[in-house]
């Protein structure tokens, strides 16, 4: 991609301004997004927002899973009127998660006509490709910014390749035709997305919005395109960035695609908040996207949400069923007790537990964990050494290895981690 935009002046692109962070809050719950702060996890409901009960229940599920911001669709008057009621029900249940309004096409109208909705939301999502054309586009966008400024609400300017700003796209294509070496169609698409995001942000600032109330995103469905777009976007601006592979897909393919794209960018220090956009299987919980996001951040050592289990895949040296059941049982025990431990102990979420299958790599891998067990493989001496912080602690024998190890694990936690006051 070219270093300089076809539409944005170099003097603006090369301006050395500070990195911005965005403060999103509701009541006393403050979420800071930006450089120097933890990567924040977002999610979005798929209920009809006008169905207040279903929407509230799903928000609760997303928050319980670990979502720190929840976006809801505000697409018509019924949905807009429901937002205030949803907010009140959540507050009455002690759930103060900030809500984001997802607006397309008619957001200016809905916000103008429903001030309770505008006040109840903690952030507005605006798609510059869906606010109109020509003068109507600027007027509609300006109305939304005016309301955001009135209530001091941050915005996300979310560009999507499925709904590009046609005015910017046309301008770039016209300028591109004049070049000696014109860009190809993919480069034009990328350039249009980046220009749309930054130009919209600059226009919002011109309308009085503070730079630290603006988050940008440029979402596409292909991993390599997303990576290159965000790499370029991060060079051209210092706004906080929201990452997400849009329309990632369903099942394992969607999980792998999202993980690949987000991990590469996050590992390069790009991105301040993420959402995993996978299609749910029938009857699958919406909170799956939150669990995926948490795992991405944890395996990259960017954030820790619960103790981590590491285990080998097993091979011909292991007693497959016994080993697999032991790993599964210990993982379940960690999942069931993590939230309890984290409320009681300081730093327990950083703990690593290893369950290894045989003597080849088992003892060595167990030594690298905080606490680990190495099982005897098929035909090997039936003992299972336990290591704590790299030192042999004891050796377990017998048919009740699981409960013996769990007892040692609980003793280790009680001894190692300080109790919260």
UniProtKB/TrEMBL annotation:
[4Fe-4S] cluster binds at residues 312, 315, 358, 365. Its EC number is 1.17.7.3. Binds 1 [4Fe-4S] cluster. One of its GO terms (molecular function) is 4-hydroxy-3-methylbut-2-en-1-yl diphosphate synthase activity (ferredoxin). InterPro entries: Dihydropteroate_synth-like_sf (IPR011005), IspG_bac (IPR016425), IspG_bac-typ (IPR004588), IspG_C (IPR058579), IspG_TIM (IPR058578), NO2/SO3_Rdtase_4Fe4S_sf (IPR045854). Pathway: Isoprenoid biosynthesis; isopentenyl diphosphate biosynthesis via DXP pathway; isopentenyl diphosphate from 1-deoxy-D-xylulose 5-phosphate: step 5/6. Keywords: 4Fe-4S, Iron, Iron-sulfur, Isoprene biosynthesis, Metal-binding, Oxidoreductase. Its cofactor is [4Fe-4S] cluster. It comes from the Bacteria. Gene3D superfamilies: Dihydropteroate synthase-like (3.20.20.20), Sulfite Reductase Hemoprotein, domain 1 (3.30.413.10). Signal peptide: none annotated. One of its GO terms (biological process) is terpenoid biosynthetic process. Residues 30-284 form the IspG TIM-barrel domain. Pfam families: GcpE (PF04551), GcpE_C (PF26540). It is an enzyme of class 1 (oxidoreductase). Residues 309-410 form the IspG C-terminal domain. It catalyses: (2E)-4-hydroxy-3-methylbut-2-enyl diphosphate + oxidized [flavodoxin] + H2O + 2 H(+) = 2-C-methyl-D-erythritol 2,4-cyclic diphosphate + reduced [flavodoxin]. Converts 2C-methyl-D-erythritol 2,4-cyclodiphosphate (ME-2,4cPP) into 1-hydroxy-2-methyl-2-(E)-butenyl 4-diphosphate. NCBIfam families: ispG_gcpE, PRK00366.1. Belongs to the IspG family. This is 4-hydroxy-3-methylbut-2-en-1-yl diphosphate synthase (flavodoxin). It comes from Candidatus Kinetoplastidibacterium kentomonadis. The gene is ispG.
